[in-house]
Amino acid sequence: MILKNCYIYDEVTEKEKLVDFHVDEKITAVKEELIKTVSTENVITIKLSGLDREIISEINQHSEKYILDCEGLITLPGGVDPHVHFDTPGFTHREDFYHGSMSAAAGGVTIVIDMPCTSLPPVTNGKNFDEKFAAIKNESVIDFGLYGGVCANNFGQLAQSMEELAAKKVRGFKTYFVSGMRTFPQVSLQQFELILKKAKELNLPVLLHAEDSGVVSAMTKQHENDNDDYLRYCNSRPAQAEVTAVAYAIEIAKRVNGNLHIVHVASSEAAELINQAGKEYSVTYETCPHYLFFTEDDFKSKGSSLKTAPVVKSKKDQADLWKYLEDGSCNFVASDHAPAPLNEKQTGSFWKDYGGIPGVQTLIPIIFSEGYKKQKLSLKRFTEVVSTNAAKRYNLYPQKGSLQIGSDADFAIINPNISWKFETKELLSKGETSPFDNELLTGKVILTILRGKIVYSDAAGITVEKGYGKYLA
Questions:
Q1: Global pTM exceeds 0.90
Q2: Any idea what the Cα angle at residue 42 is, between residues 37 and 48, rounded to 5°?
Q3: Which domains does the chain have, with CATH numbers?
Q4: Which residues pair with 454 in a beta bridge?
């Protein structure tokens, strides 16, 4: 198959270009001498608008006969979302790997890395990994990786468990400084230091949910009598919780020269601490689309559909996070995809409502609309923060996150000029509510290609069977 007239950011020449891609499962050639005409009767040129399932099935079976014309569109390497909770097995009433992966494909994401904490059993040793893998290996429509987890419950077998998980090719180890999960409780600072040391020995990063349990506990008690549930919750998880946790984590990471990644940073002050540490040490961080789109003022209209941990914060935090994303201080954006059914999101008490949103399908559309189209991000930075940088951070590059010859033929193709209103009913996730409901966006994913096959089109939906996605070991 040939993708013709692709407008891309070329990471090799560091320029925006118009090129043709020749692909099978991988990118076999990249040509700047664009194909002008095709006269042979055995080759069919197709515009991407209006692709139906029958045509896509034919393309997927006999791709060598087809040229897809991407004129007027923007082509980028398939999105990499390194922070999702797909919940299989154990909490599949909230999300499962099949629906989560379909939602990812609809958003231009071709690989996700799934968190270890929201499945039963949690992925904290080799045996639990095998149970998880058996449940999901034939469920995904896109490629995937997994993290291992370390929590207080399995700390007695720390070294053995982490070694078992490393042998299974996990992409890192997730842990928490504050956790409300009985099956995955938080670790102490002393335990965290041991985790960093062992992960360094195994040459893998440690991913930290950085909110300080002491701050959260004290502020929860201080605000327990607040009349307004949403204010009570937000006040219980202030920016100081992030700042304190990040400061502790950086101090320990410096002491042991650890490989540390802070997930879902919402506080600009916490981000600035990481920016400074990252100049000398292996300390990185991500932020999320909801922190870049909403502020605490939006809770009044969005309610618990916007409830996450950490919570969205001030306009200054939001503006600073955009600045850090633009200047390269913030490494990439991840969704922290974690949906739940309405009966858990709307209990009648904001305090008790489930904290998490279905974000994998909206990650690329939000960052494209709010970042690239509003000129906060160049095409280079947009490509890096939704694909390339996460692939590099988790040792997936250049197989993923790249448009080089030899990379997997993964593409997200965006029509940059479509203005549209996102509606929750468009989600392919099991999620039943989204804070992005009824928000106006510019730019829409119209085609997602994984390893040379069309897995999603805006016109036809998901076009491959579950199980097409592979575990990347």
A1: yes
A2: 60
A3: 2-75+407-419+441-462 (2.30.40.10), 77-393 (3.20.20.140)
A4: 449
DSSP string, 397-452: TTTSS--STTSB--EEEEEEEEEEE--GGG--SS----TTTT-EEEEEEEEEEETT
pLDDT digits (tens, 9 = 90+) for 205-240: 999 999 999 999 999 999 887 777 788 899 999 999
385 DSSP 8-state letter: I
Compute the CA torsion angle 371, 293, 179, 342 (nearest 10 deg). -120
| Contact in structure between 410 and 454 (CB atoms under 8 Å) | no
Alpha-carbon span 468 to 20, nearest angstrom: 26
Reading the block at residue 306, the tokens are 């916007």
Between β-strands 15-23 and 27-31, what pairing exists: parallel, antiparallel or unpaired? antiparallel
Cα–Cα distance, 109 to 97 (Å, whole number): 14
116 vs 149: CA distance, rounded Å:
5
Distance CA 200, CA 193 (A): 11
